[in-house]
Structures are given as structure tokens and as C-alpha cells.
Amino acid sequence: ALVACKDSGTVVVVDLNTFRVLADINVGGQPNFVAMSHRGYRAYVSNYGRSREGLLHIVDVRERSVVASIKMGASPFALVVCPTTELIYTVIGGNNEVWVVDPERKVVVNKIAVGEAPDGIAITPDGKRVFVANSRSNDLSVIDTDLMRVQITVPVGKMPFGVAVSPDGKRIFVVNTGSRNVSIFASDLRNLVAETFDVDRGPTDIKIAPDNRTVYVINEMSNTLVVADIP
User: What is the pTM of this model?
Assistant: First the structure.
């Protein structure tokens, strides 16, 4: 497991068999999010930096070193890696955009405008759609990865933060912090009226188990983990 440690400016490598720290990779600044490449030998780390300009680090997991740092916009946050192209989609909260990075050329290849104050991001298993939760505009931007633009914007609850796609790619789950609930849509968006279920105070993030129905929601203000069964 790789853990971004904002205060120390490092990414920690943890052995999940022994639960021991194997290495500290120094990236500097304020790293806040890590995603693995699908080949497994690279990690991508978003970093607030120390000024208005953030960074995206490419880390060689085998060598445990930073191989490149790419200049990003204001407040890069969550990111996902496309399972088919390996392109990296990074939420740039201060710019209200998602920046697309080619890790082989180490350059930003596109900038996609989304809603206000984007936070969470998720991608379908086929890499065709990216979903971005916009906490200030209370909506979900749906990006078509072939066209590299927002296909549709869907209203959700108040202050959406976390977003996840079920492993089978059929459903989208959006955590609404202000509404204290989770919105559920079919990923083909055939129906834009969401089903919802309530959680505890201050929900911020969500994960879906491999069975596609067990849902885990982190609730920051109530210090709880909600486990829900959604058939």
C-alpha cells in the first residue's frame, strides 16, 4: 500500500503482510492522493505544493523514487488512471478543471472544464467515462473520454465529495456531504433521478466491494464507517 503523508511530504510504502513501513519516498510539498498504474510498477501522486501551482509526481514503485514531476494547476487533488490508455485524470480544484496527463510523454494533453470546486473522481472499468463530483455546484460532471469533454452534468445532493463506480461498471455512487446521503445512478444514465440512502454526519468518501453491492462510506464528522448492502 502507498500512503500520501501531507505533513511530512512523503509517500510511505507499507507491506500488507507484515504491516510494516518498507520505505519513505520523499516528494516534498503536500502530497494528498495516490493512484497506482494498472501495470503495477508506477504510482501517481498529486501534490498541493507550497504555492498556487501544484505538481503530479510519477513514482517508480520498484526503485522507490520519483522519476518525474509535472507542473499542474491550483490544488490538484484526487486522480484516476484510465485502465485502457493509462492516461491520468486529475482533479484541479482551484481551476474547476480535470487535467489529463500522458505519463509516457510526461505532459498535460488536455484540460476539461467541470463544475465548481471539484473533489471526487471515478472512472468506469472500460475507461469510457469519468465522473467528477463538484462540491460547490452540487452536481456530477460526466466526461466522455473519447471526446475529452463533459457529456452531461447531473444534479445530485448538497456538497458532493466522494464518487465511486461499482466494479462491474453498472452503477455510480456519489457521497453528498451536505445532504448526509449517497446518490445512486445507473452508469448508462438512462435515468437521471437518483436513488438515495442516508448515512452519518460528514460523509466524504465511498468504496464498493467486489460483490458490487457492499458499500463502505467514511463519515468524517461522526468518526464512523457505514457498511451498507445495496442489492
Answer: 0.95
